[in-house]
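Posted in: Protein Modeling Q&A

I'm a second-year student putting together a small comparison for a lab meeting, and my supervisor asked me to include a predicted structure for Putative NADH-flavin reductase. I've never done this before, so apologies if this is the wrong subforum. The sequence is pasted below exactly as I got it from our records. If anyone can share the structure token output, I'd also love a short note on what stands out.
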Amino acid sequence: RHNVTVLVRTPEKIQLNNENLTIIRGNVLNNEDIVRAMHGIDIVISALNTDGTTTLSESMPLIIEAMENEGLKRIITIGTAGILQSRTMPNSLRYQSSKSKRKSTRAAKEHHKVYDILKQSTLEWTIVCPTYLPDGERIGKYRIERSFLPEDGVEISVPDTAEFTFSQIKTSDYIKSRVGIAY
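Accepted answer (user: helix_wrangler)
Welcome! Here is the predicted structure, written out as tokens:
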């Protein structure tokens, strides 16, 4: 059993009521809100969206600072398959290679900044990097690979991505790693 604290802009969107869930209304760019969310926790899971802005890369230094001040070491974030290594261009990331099918690389660039920020930190980080992420059903069977998208991986559902992300709480297998996940 876990106690979960979430920091969200719009608590009304959360359709879940549980005695082990604490919902904090706030903004991830507000240091005081981040600090409030950090009290009494052991691990941070960040599933921030890039939302067309630089919120992701601007908030990560604030999150890291708050974690360090609280003595927290472990962070698991959701990234994108675009920041995994390219198989065709070994010194490039997928979004920088011809393998990328994205018209816009803005979101991948934002996730790349976060990857660089985490690499410079002393935290025990893991970046879960799903490819196309439809809502879909939980299947419970998927492939994972350190630093790369599993060969011919096309999609992974939100529930399966969440399941793998949650599983990282109990393991140190992928500390300081990006992990590709797909069916």
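A couple of things worth pointing out for your meeting: The chain has one domain: 4-81+111-182. The mean pLDDT is 94.
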